[in-house]
Amino acid sequence: MSLNPRPRPPLSEAALSSPLETSERQPIEATPAAATPSGVALGASRRLLPENWDRYLVRIGALLVAALCWHLASTYGFDFFVRFDNVPGPLVVGAEFLAQASSQQFYLHILHSIQRIAIAYGLAVVIGVVLGVMMGRSRFAEDVILPYIEILRPIPAVAWIPLAILMMPTEQSSIVFITFLGALFPIVINTVHGVEQTPKVLVRAARSLGASNAAILWHVVLPGALPSIVTGLAIGMGVAWFSLLAGEIISGQYGIGYFTWSAYTLVEYPKIIIGMLVIGGLGSLCTLLVRKACAPLLRWQTEGAKS
């Protein structure tokens, strides 16, 4: 048995260096920008601003440019295929809008229109989604319902007015019926499209795992069809306002459509533009509310890249 100790391995250069040298060789981490006072202030200011605030600034700027072009065209009497001789400028319309905003009658018109939209659109959503799911899941249901949809869908809302007045007991119900038809068809068509686009592989996989038809519909078909359904809901809201305007012009006594038409008959041009802008604003607001209400259902969907 040898008494010689086992030879030690040679020390590396890092081990031979002094502790002071080792500490000096370690890189100094940069302080994050958020930790500096300026970085903290910048982060706080960004948190105060809404998301995608720069895009909203661009949109507001585009509207201001359109208002400026409108002002210049009406001021200098632009006349090249489109005439602005008798079109009131934005300042005149704004002054008239402030006068109408202080009138209780103006809000009564808006309230009646919103009430009709709420009733008609609610019915269209329930019936349209149910019919669309039935047509998308059953060939027999599609063969029975689709001919009615394809025949009635091209008929404009104005053409329904005489028949609606004859069929419905009151003017209110006739306007709601016309608005309901306008919102129904986009919802049905988009729902059918979304249900039919559900991958068959997912349905077969769920069925092989023992899922029932109700479970497949609730957990596979409807989630896959939701993007198309939401698109139909948004389009249906816009068409509903268009149909409402047609119904209120002919057979209404209150409503923003009646307000616009009565302004035309009385040759009150600023009120005509006010009615048009209010209809556009309310329609855009209602469409935005529909999209925001449906946004939690589409959290799984990745947002498309936009440059």
Automatic annotation (TrEMBL):
Q: Does the keyword Transport apply?
A: yes
UniProt record, GO biological process: alkanesulfonate transmembrane transport
* Residues that span the membrane, as ranges: 56-73, 117-136, 148-168, 174-195, 216-242, 272-290
Q: Looking at the record's lineage, which domain of life comes first?
A: Bacteria
Q: Where is the composition biased (Pro residues)?
A: 1-10
Segments forming domain ABC transmembrane type-1 = 110-290
Question: Can the keyword Plastid be found in this entry's annotation?
Answer: no
Q: How does it sit in the membrane?
A: Multi-pass membrane protein
Q: Where in the cell is it found?
A: Cell membrane
What's an example GO cellular component term for this entry?
plasma membrane
Segments carrying the region annotation (Disordered) are 1-36
Q: Which InterPro entries match?
A: MetI-like, MetI-like_sf
Annotated SUPFAM superfamilies? MetI-like
Protein name stated in the entry: ABC transporter permease
Its source organism is Billgrantia endophytica
